[in-house]
Amino acid sequence: MLATAVIVFREVLEAALVIAIVLGASRGVARRGWWVLGGIMLGALGAGLVALFADVIAQSFAGTGQALLDATILLIAVLMLGWHNVWMASHGRKLAGEIKQIGAAVQAGNKTLAALLLICFTAVMREGSEVVLFLWAIAASGGHEFGMTVGGFAGLIVGIAVGALLYRSLLFIPIRYFFTVTGWLILLLTAGLAAQAAGFLNQAGLLPALGNSLWNTSAILSQQSMLGELLHILVGYIARPSGIELLFYAGTLVTIFTLMRLVRRRALRSCRSSVSVRGETQATSS
Amino acid sequence: MHLRLSSLILFGALAISTAVVAAPSTAQLTIKDRVFTTTELTVPANTKIKLLVTNEDLIPAEFESYDLSREVVIPGHSTVTVYLDALAPGRYNFFNDFNHAAQGWVVVGAPDQAKTGNQD
Known about the structure:
The complex is a heterodimer. By secondary structure, chain A is an all-alpha fold. In chain A, 78% of the residues lie in helices and 0% in strands. Chain A contains 9 helices and no strands. The termini of chain A are far apart. The model of chain A is unreliable at 278-286 (pLDDT under 50). Chain B has one domain: Cupredoxins -  blue copper proteins (Immunoglobulin-like), CATH 2.60.40. Chain B has 2 helices and 9 strands, in the order αβββββββββα. The longest helix of chain B is centred in the N-terminal third of the chain and has 20 residues, at 2-21. The radius of gyration of chain B is 17 Å and the shape is globular. Residues 112-120 of chain B have low confidence and may be disordered. The A-B interface holds A 3, 7, 54-55, 58-59, 62-64, 66-67, 129-130, 133-134, 136-138, 140-141, 199, 202-205, 208-209, 212-213, 218, 222-224, 238-242, 245 and B 16, 19-20, 24, 34, 50, 52, 58-62, 66-83, 85-88, 97-100.
């Protein structure tokens, strides 16, 4: 029962932390709750489908189908998180201002909300399909049905609770720094997901490793430890990274960071010029 | 200077392409009754390995390794392919994430074993 709880917890935690961070980062955006919820629901549905067709997926592409699917899902998440962060870079100041003054929600374009939905969808689908397969494996191996159900639910609830705790703690950050902090959190999270995608593409034999285990810090901080696991999810910590994982990590970090800087500078300039012309604060959302 | 640079690039490209094109040696792992039938899998060093993991059970298993940074679900009665790139000699732990009692090691041998592994 405990083993079931721990494994379900670890899978749920990853999705819960991703959702907690994007929920925080999209604070002040109108109707974001519905889009996040929609993403979670669709993700659960997708997880069921992936689990149901697990054998078909596994056998496809000469036995590398699952790694390719994982890499694809991760890269979609990377694109959407990158898009979301760049959007926030140009709108964060406005959002922070509105939250401070009237607490009113800001209307965001459908593209941004769709990105939010896709991020939650990919997080839940990837982790959820493993939970479904794992629970089935336990059930089929003649484990006690009752203990399994209790363990599974316990893992699910504790995982969601930790995600909620992260979200609540994020809200304690003063609004002036809030979007800067969430921006950095998403940046590191996204780089970590990109490194994971690179790992899967290497596992499928499509990308060279460019050197296995460039360094090994498992003696200092094992990836199996709770802290190692947490840092793996949040900032992409890998104890024994390969060259390709490092390359994807750094490449994603630099690309998104540069785009954020460019967009923020442009937003500031257009804000200044519109203020000097009419004093208007109404900006059209992209 | 120019010639030296281009020959360097050519050499680099050649080195990369042979690393990619060279047929990997194949290794096999089997899961039965939720455990690995081989707990020590010996492979040659510095050689790309095509590892076939077969699950003979009806229920799914997950081949996972932090040391090798590998993770894949293997549904019942199926085989998946996991590539391992040129490993340095040493021992690399792997396990069945759906049954942690099932542990195993990839044992990477001395470099001279790589040659015999490549010729078959």
